[in-house]
Amino acid sequence: MTTATLDRSMELTLTAPETAPTTPQRASTRKTAVLVGLLFLTATFTFAIGNALIHSYFSGATLHNGTLIAGVFLVVCDGLAVAGNGLAMRRILTPHAPIRSLLYLFLRSAECLTVVVVGAYWLTSHAQWGGYVLAVYAFAGTAGLVLSSALLTSRSVPKNLALLGVIGYPVFLVGSILAMFNLIDVTHGVGMLALVPGGLFELVLPIWLFAKGFASHQIES
């Protein structure tokens, strides 16, 4: 009986150092999931509100410079949020999809640079450039497709959620391309349907990350 107890104690002692790091790693990954969720929501709402303010200014509905400044500030916040998203996702995606992880960071950084440059142009010239929305959508749609495909193959989130992005973002990109040729308008009317699947993914994903985080196998690997 005494020998069995000693053997059990030695087993626990030997295995403890291997399992101890799991808890801090799990906590760190959980924090990353919450951060990514917050950045997604921040980007979604700052872009929507900022773009509405900018449209209001250039449409003549509100001619106060403060409206333009606030709009530019919000779209720049959107740019910083998506760039931060690309950086935060690196540690989750790199072990399973290193090339797509780097590509996602590049696309999100390019999206950020686009809105910063366009925002500076607006503030200095007070001239409208309506095509910027399509440029942002092109980067965002491509980045979203890269992200959702990486999430699907890495099994970081449920398959159905990842598939929503894999299906939704090509629809989003096709709508953006058609809009470039003035065949549809993705900012008004029926054309806005092209934004629905990708937009739904960007709303559901943060909720899932807040509630469940990334899959446990990501932590174990």
What would you note in describing this structure?
This protein has one domain. It has nine helices and no strands. The chain has helices spanning 2-19, 22-58, 65-88, 90-93, 98-125, 132-154, 159-180, 196-211, 216-220.
State the order of secondary-structure elements, H for helix, E for strand.
HHHHHHHHH
Helical coverage, percent range: over 70%
Radius of gyration (Å) = 22 Å
**Helix- and strand-based class?**
mainly alpha
Quaternary structure annotation: single chain
- First CA to last CA: what distance? 38 Å
Instruction: Report the biggest beta sheet as strand number plus sense, adding barrel if it closes.
Output: none
Low-confidence stretches: 1-22
Question: What best-fitting shape do the alpha-carbon axes yield?
Answer: globular
> How many domains in all?
1
**Total beta strands:** 0
Note the total helix count. 9
Strand content: under 5%
Average predicted local confidence, pLDDT: 84
What's the helix and strand layout?
Layout: H1 2-19, H2 22-58, H3 65-88, H4 90-93, H5 98-125, H6 132-154, H7 159-180, H8 196-211, H9 216-220
For this entry, give a set of tags.
221 residues, mainly alpha, 9 helices, 0% strand, disordered N terminus
Short description:
Helices cover 80% and strands 0% of the residues. It is mainly α and 221 residues long. Helix 3 (65-88) packs antiparallel against helix 5, helix 5 runs antiparallel to helix 6 (132-154) and helix 6 (132-154) packs antiparallel against helix 7.
